[in-house]
Design goal:
This protein is α+β, with helices and mostly antiparallel strands and 133 residues long. The chain has one domain. It has 5 helices and 5 strands; from the N terminus they run αββαβααββα. A 3-stranded antiparallel sheet has the order 3-5-4. The chain has a two-stranded antiparallel ribbon with strand order 1-2. A hairpin with a 3-residue loop joins strand 4 and strand 5. It is elongated and about 60 Å long. The N and C termini lie far apart (34 Å). 24% of the residues are buried.
């Protein structure tokens, strides 16, 4: 069996990244700017990064792959921190992880993907929203 190669939806990444960058610029606190225009800013809190992750998922309105997340958040937050925040949101059943390392809000899991949900506790939320018994 040949593994499915993950593809990146370039248009989705561009659209979501633009929205996330706008919100990032609003929330970051610049400490100083030197004579060359280089800015030193305070790192975002985990809560602020969580809000950006949820914003990205709301904007996408469909599952986002890990590769797409890395591109969306490049230069905003490091990969290790992004993984930790996604894992925390998943553990709290705020987001859904699907097979092939894709993430979604429960309301945006396509019906054909319900069987691919990796955190089953959130499955009841998905099913109750869709009135599936």
């Amino acid at each position: 069996m040949v593994p499915v190669k993950a593809t990146v939806d370039v248009d989705l990444v561009r659209k979501v990244r633009e929205k996330v960058l706008r919100e990032f610029e609003k929330s970051r606190e610049i400490l100083e700017t030197d004579e060359f225009g280089i800015e030193v800013s305070l790192a975002l809190s985990d809560e602020e990064v969580e809000k950006l992750v949820l914003l990205a998922l709301k904007e996408a309105k469909k599952p986002i792959s890990w590769r797409e997340f890395k591109q969306i958040f490049s230069g905003i937050v490091g990969e290790d921190r992004l993984r930790r925040i996604l894992a925390n949101l998943k553990a709290r059943d705020v987001i859904v992880e699907l097979t092939r390392t894709r993430y979604s809000l429960p309301e945006y899991v396509p019906p054909s993907e319900i069987g691919k949900v990796k955190n089953p506790r959130v499955l009841s939320k998905i099913l109750s929203r869709r009135n599936i018994q």
